[in-house]
Amino acid sequence: MAEPNEALGEFALIDRIVERLGDAAARDILVPPGDDAAAWTTEAGVSVATVDVLVEGNHFRADTMSRGDLGWRAMAANVSDIAAMGATPEFAFIGLVLPPHEPLESIDRLVDGMAEACRAMGVRVGGGDIVRGDRLTISVTITGRTASSDALLRRDSARVGDRVAVSGHLGAAAAGLALIEAGRGGGDGAGAPLLLAHRRPMPRVALGRAAAEAGVRCGMDVSDGLLQDLGHIAERSNVGIEVQTSKIPLHPAAVAELGAQAALDLALGGGEDFELAMTAPSAILEAVGHTEPRLTSIGVVVEDHPGEAWALHDDGTRYVPAVSGWDQMRAGAS
Amino acid sequence: MAEPNEALGEFALIDRIVERLGDAAARDILVPPGDDAAAWTTEAGVSVATVDVLVEGNHFRADTMSRGDLGWRAMAANVSDIAAMGATPEFAFIGLVLPPHEPLESIDRLVDGMAEACRAMGVRVGGGDIVRGDRLTISVTITGRTASSDALLRRDSARVGDRVAVSGHLGAAAAGLALIEAGRGGGDGAGAPLLLAHRRPMPRVALGRAAAEAGVRCGMDVSDGLLQDLGHIAERSNVGIEVQTSKIPLHPAAVAELGAQAALDLALGGGEDFELAMTAPSAILEAVGHTEPRLTSIGVVVEDHPGEAWALHDDGTRYVPAVSGWDQMRAGAS
């Protein structure tokens, strides 16, 4: 009996595929598969590129997200991977699988959302492919550039003693989704900024670039959930990462609407905020601090428990959030 | 009642989307959306990129194509778009939608086929994304380079008086598929080269580069069917293209296995050969002629019927093939 692939999680399956590709995987490039984006040197600097796929029913649902917001988010998720390298996005290449009965008007809305995101994020569509299929599926590849190979934010360069910082508020996007699922997606109440964080997240391109220029060398975007994402840095850098729950920048509206406990859980495990997490000596992080959105120092890189990231209360007890992070291969309907 | 998108063909839908993107579409780059690949200048030369999406049941079927061959073809189709610009492919970014029950072993075969193609075509995988979905879907973006913006094969640069030439044999891949569908896919008979053309097509990277270097400025790959593909050149260049049926290079095995008439129909309308079609003054085409696979001169660029490509018998009568070319949005199951 053949073994179905669902037994493996996303990351195990990626490892298996990269292993199997052998020398067909570009392991010797500057930043090989496994970081937010691949990066390679050219005569003019460094090129970066990243791909993400969204499938209806798995990554988004028509009842919680409009087609316009979907178009925006498809671009935002990829631009965020470029921002997380400290690079500048340039061109998008879009592969679209369209069900035959998807109304033309809804495709128009989707394209409008993509166009609005492109304008807001300084990206332009360079090409695409449209094919027929059962489920709306959006594959976006974004290419970008940065001037120097020394100025990249990588996952494997956290050093013991570094401070850990994050931008903006965490858990806001997940709180927005929670409101929508609770039938409170109307939008003009106190939850409005949370709904906006979910529907129109803004990747931190300027901040990523400023961090790289200031000398930060380790960073990624918060897309799967803070602890899971910091776990990737811990694993690739072979360090431990300890964050303090009292320092996590919660969105005031999330605390007001859902309570402090739920807001913290969503901040640690909720994902899709597209804020940046980075580690560096404090002096360097302070030098980045003038760029919006502001950085908040939330923890420290340690020698203990290499490969792990965890959260501590002020009394020293470990806190395990109720939400555990996002695994593409195990999540959602299929 | 909302209008479903299926009323529009692939090209009409692309036009609508590019129109709607407005200034979010990169119209001012060297070669904007609508050619085989997008191309833009950098400080170090010209970057090119292209994306293609394959959906199970629509673009391939498990009963006519093994997972290994599928992996190869997914890469080949994209590399061919880069070759069709006269550029050199570099990195591939792969988005994979995997049904949960797709056996691990079949994913291994798929990856093996991709790796073999990468090695054969000089491409390396720079990154990817794997997600869950109902239908196996493969989205491949390939980036590449060329030294000079003057040396690109475009669709909009055919000139009246140019000769039209194609590489290799046309219709071989479609003839291979016809053999498989007739239950003759065993592989070691006279049809073997046709099966190979279908299962392991080899994009013409060296030829594309040689053509660009020799001064050819107009070309594309034969992927949807010769007449349809030449029609794109005719439309974008605002010229007519006339080819002679007697000059079309048919594969001897296709003629032997299926008869001359069917072989000609498949050559004119069958597609997926991934040979190159180009137009240029004869002296330039002759200068390319030493690169394998050899070019065959099949027609001429004329002023009449701008936007159209057609085939003539030697007696001057127009020939309309029984196979009409491939429209991604109208083809196949869904």
Please state the structural category of chain A.
Answer: alpha+beta
| Share of residues in strands of chain A | 15-25%
The gyration radius over C-alpha positions of chain A equals 19 Å
Record the strand order, biggest sheet of chain A.
7-9-6-10-8-11-12
Q: Spell the H/E element sequence of chain A.
A: HEEHEHEEEHHHEHEHHEHEEE
Calculate the terminal CA-CA distance of chain A, rounded to whole Å: 22 Å
Tally of contiguous helical segments of chain A: 10
Oligomer: homodimer
Q: So what's the overall shape of chain A? A: globular
Helix percentage of chain A = 25-40%
Average pLDDT score of chain A: 90
Number of strands of chain A: 12
Walkthrough of the structure:
The structure is a homodimer of 334-residue chains. Chain A has 334 residues and is α+β, with helices and mostly antiparallel strands. Helices cover 33% and strands 24% of the residues of chain A. Chain A has helices spanning 10-21, 67-83, 104-121, 172-181, 192-199, 205-214, 226-237, 252-258, 260-269, 282-288, and strands at 38-42, 45-55, 88-98, 124-132, 137-146, 163-167, 218-221, 240-244, 276-280, 295-302, 309-312, 318-319. In chain A, the strands form two sheets. A seven-stranded mixed sheet of chain A has the order 7-9-6-10-8-11-12. In chain A, helix 4 (172-181) crosses helix 5, helix 6 crosses helix 10 and helix 8 (252-258) packs across helix 9 (260-269). Chain A is globular and about 55 Å long.
